[in-house]
Amino acid sequence: MVSLSFSSAAQDNWPKNGQVAVSLSYDDALNSQLDNAVPQLNEYQFKGSFYLTLSSPVVPQRLSEWRAAAEQGHELGNHTISHACRADMPDRDWVASQNDLAKRSVAQMVDEVKLANDYLYAIDGKKSRTMTLPCGESQAKDGDYLPQVKEQFVAIKGFEAVSLNSIIHVPAERSGAELIAYLLAAKDQQRRLVNIIFHGVGGDYLTISNEAHKELLSFLDQHRNDYWVDSYINIMQQFSNH
Ligand SMILES: [Zn+2]
How many angstroms does the Cα of residue 60 sit away from the middle of ligand 1? Predict the structure, then answer.
């Protein structure tokens, strides 16, 4: 994209007159994302961001489908290899001892994040990448690993370098109307970016039904002048160009 100048005309170019950027993203590399989310996004020609936990068996089992999604314009993002989270938080029985972030060092996490980027490169051939932090956490046993991995990414979701008055929603068991309400509120609150982080779509866990997901996409399709849907990396690269 050519940026002519910072005249008012150029500033109006993006986002268009108060248009809110919307990043639809999908964490953890789940079957239902390939089965349901990707086909729905393609139907509306929206680009989503899929943050793969690379230890998920769904990555090697369906490698060609992840690769195809990337070729269709969807983003494959870094959600680490082992999804290390703090086991000392509530409801964390599922965190295996070896994946307890409280037992990992910053150096181990930096290595793991780099390896995850290398693995993703082997899938889609891309060198620019974004990330979502597993459980939104980065406090390892000897410090915060986020500042040490930041330089590997165009952006880390929720930690954008530019101020976008952004918000993150992580919906589970929400109706289409409730999802659409996120968008309406963002417009009222003059946000420039809304992040919706899904997990299961029509299956798996922290699930949104296929119907609710489709209702959201249909609303976005009907309001393209108000909301600009793109992959998180495309949105963040646009912002950094302005
Ligand atoms: Zn996750």
Answer: 18
Ligand 1 geometric centre to CA of 12 (Å): 36
For residue 160, name the pLDDT band (cuts at 50, 70, 90).
confident
Angle at which helices 106-124 and 63-71 cross, to 10°: 70
Task: Kindly report, residue by residue over 183-229, the tens digit of the pLDDT.
Answer: 999 999 999 999 999 999 999 999 999 999 999 999 999 999 999 99
3 alpha carbon to ligand 1 midpoint, in Å? Answer: 36
Whole-number Å distance, alpha carbon 207 to ligand 1 midpoint, is 13
The CA 139 to ligand 1 mean position distance, Å, reads 15
Question: Measured between alpha carbons, how far is 155 from 133 in angstroms, rounded to an integer?
Answer: 11
Distance 6 CA to ligand 1 centre (A): 39
Report all structural domains of the chain as residue ranges with CATH numbers, in order of start. 16-240 (3.20.20.370)
Rounded mean pLDDT, 42-48: 98
d(CA 70, CA 241): 23
CA distance 236 to 112: 24
Tracing tokens 């494959």 back to the chain, one arrives at 76
